[in-house]
Design brief:
With about 375 residues, the protein is mainly beta. The protein has one domain (about 1-205, about 240-370): monomeric porin ompg (Porin, Beta Barrel). Helix content is about 10%, strand content about 50%.
């Protein structure tokens, strides 16, 4: 009864938050009115190649980005290191590290750190608009701490707390956000848990605001202008707060298991997944993906991320029906995983994903995974 009450409480909470977020969703005219857009970038290879369509079936530490409930499927210890060349040619890179540990009878704790780097950028000022006075290096860091558990054989839920940091040498902003999610799996066709449903709410939190010495400047004291005095004063400007890019994911997936060996293990698996993303500040998205798996050794996936106007030319005007994103929708990737250790209970894997863009030369993501 206690488990049932907990499940009902989580479901009710997500329903309320879902309604609150959806009321403001999918309005392209609000683009640019939110900040911390790095929270919308998937730094993980497997789900990036799936076009983020696997909200309902993602598992392990990668689930912390799409649907934190999926971290509850971690059986022992999982470690992932990854790097993304974001918008090839732009000089932007995203490094990520994640650890997920099974705890208790049915729980899992996850920790991830993502760092976005932009290289060195010339400093320009009012007096030096062409630079020549040095460089600065922006730093974006997101830290996530999550807990998820299985409430039954079919229902999984979790919550993720995130620390968001954006800074340069003399200006910074610090914020917090919360994600929550639920996954449901059903036994269909021979007792396999091959029907998946999932819903997640992401990036809910208070406004962020920049502060620091970089918002201050020196000017003449207006009370001394009449007397010809050269006294100066320091004036600090106030920064406008900005909202976080909250969204809701709703997805479903189905696994087709083909052929079985003498142990009853499927030799081939085909997973078809679909997801709807309701964004608060940009256009809504519909994602679809297909993944082929050969035992647990090889997975190959393709996906497409659609939004209104994606087939048109790149545009900055949401009223003319053009494409409001550099992404053109197509995604693909693969995972190669090999078992090792006593009883082959551990595994080592390499994943790669590519997302097409125009302009730039796409996004390349690579990850190394160890299950211990």
């Amino acid at each position: 009864m206690k488990k049932i009450s907990t499940i009902k409480a989580i479901t009710a909470g997500l329903t309320v938050l879902l309604f609150w977020t959806t009321v403001k969703a999918g309005d392209p005219s609000r683009a640019g009115q939110s900040g911390a857009s790095e929270l919308l970038i998937n730094p993980w290879a497997s789900s990036s190649g799936f076009a983020n369509a696997n909200t309902s079936c993602v598992q392990g530490i990668e689930a912390q980005f799409l649907n934190v409930a999926g971290t509850a499927f971690t059986k022992q210890t999982e470690v992932i290191l990854g790097n993304t060349e974001y918008l090839g040619g732009s000089g932007i890179n995203i490094a990520v590290a994640g650890l997920c540990q099974h705890v208790g009878d049915a729980g899992a704790i996850g920790l991830s750190i993502a760092s976005m780097s932009f290289g060195s950028i010339p400093i320009t000022t009012y007096d030096n608009p062409e630079g020549g006075v040095g460089n600065f290096t922006p730093s974006y860091i997101n830290i996530g701490l999550s807990y998820a558990r299985a409430f039954s054989d079919n229902i999984y839920g979790g919550i993720n707390f995130k620390l968001v940091s954006e800074s340069i040498s003399n200006v910074d902003a610090l914020g917090v956000a919360v994600d929550a999610g639920i996954q449901y799996v059903a036994d269909v066709a021979g007792g396999k848990k091959n029907l998946h449903f999932g819903i997640s709410l992401k990036n809910v939190g208070p406004q962020m605001k920049y502060s620091g010495d970089g918002l201050a400047f020196e000017t003449n004291n207006p009370n001394d202008v009449a007397t010809g005095s050269t006294n100066t004063m320091t004036v600090e400007q106030r920064s406008q707060g900005y909202e976080l890019p909250s969204l809701v994911n709703i997805g479903a997936a189905y696994d087709f298991h083909i052929l079985k060996d003498s142990n009853g293990t499927s030799m081939h698996r085909i997973t078809v997944a679909a997801n709807f993303t309701s964004n608060s500040f940009i256009q809504d998205e519909e994602e679809i993906g297909v993944e082929y798996g050969f035992r647990s050794f090889l997975s190959i996936r393709v996906g497409y991320d659609y939004e209104k106007g994606i087939f048109g030319g790149l545009s900055t005007d949401p009223t003319n029906g053009g494409r409001l994103t550099v992404f053109t929708g197509a995604c693909a990737g693969f995972t190669l995983q090999l078992p090792f250790g006593k009883g082959k209970m551990s595994s080592f894997g390499i994943s790669y994903a590519y997302r097409a863009t125009n302009p730039f030369t796409g996004c390349n993501t690579i990850g190394i995974r160890m299950n211990l």
